[in-house]
Design a protein that fits this description.
5 helices, globular, binds [cytidine-5'-phosphate] glycerylphosphoric acid ester, about 130 residues, 5 strands, alpha/beta
């Protein structure tokens, strides 16, 4: 069984998230998603609309996702890859080369982002609609 892992905030789940999850699952049989805790989002300077618990429950309902774990630190990836016996690490290519150090532990794959959608775009578009 090939095991895949990916990381992110996954706030206000949208087609860009679904595309990367579906494509990541295509590399194997079991997909683990590490979602940023609310505390780690503060470190990433991201204010998620949904709490960690809600983002976790939403992702757990996504067909391609087999397990959701918390991401609490930038430093946990090597330990995660070993602990969960990961074959392939997948991220969107906005992170290209940032995680190449994982090549010593598993396959590292960067996939093209879905153009034209992001959580911040959703927030700013809704703000505009509200204020038109
Ligand atoms: N993504 C995508 N296309 C988009 C938007 C996002 O492919 N239009 C991908 C990102 O490249 C990432 C994943 O969806 O692989 C999750 O994106 P975010 O929730 O924005 O996660 P991020 O803040 O990039 O956190 O340790 C890694 C970090 O936790 C990644």
């Amino acid at each position: 069984m090939k095991r895949i892992i990916t990381y992110g905030t996954f706030d206000l789940l949208h087609i860009g998230h679904i595309n990367i999850l579906r494509r990541a699952k295509g590399f194997g049989d079991y997909l683990i998603v590490a979602i940023s805790s609310d505390q780690f989002n503060a470190i990433k300077d991201k204010q998620a609309y949904y709490t960690f618990e809600h983002r976790k429950a939403i992702l757990e309902a996504v067909r391609d996702v087999d397990q959701v774990i918390p991401e609490n630190s930038w430093k946990q990836k090597i330990e995660d890859v070993q602990k969960y016996n990961i074959d392939t690490f997948v991220m969107g290519d906005d992170w290209k080369s940032q995680f190449d150090f994982l090549n010593d532990y598993c396959e590292v794959v960067y996939l093209s982002r879905t153009v034209g959608i992001s959580t911040s775009k959703i927030k700013s578009d809704l703000f505009k609609v509200q204020n038109d």
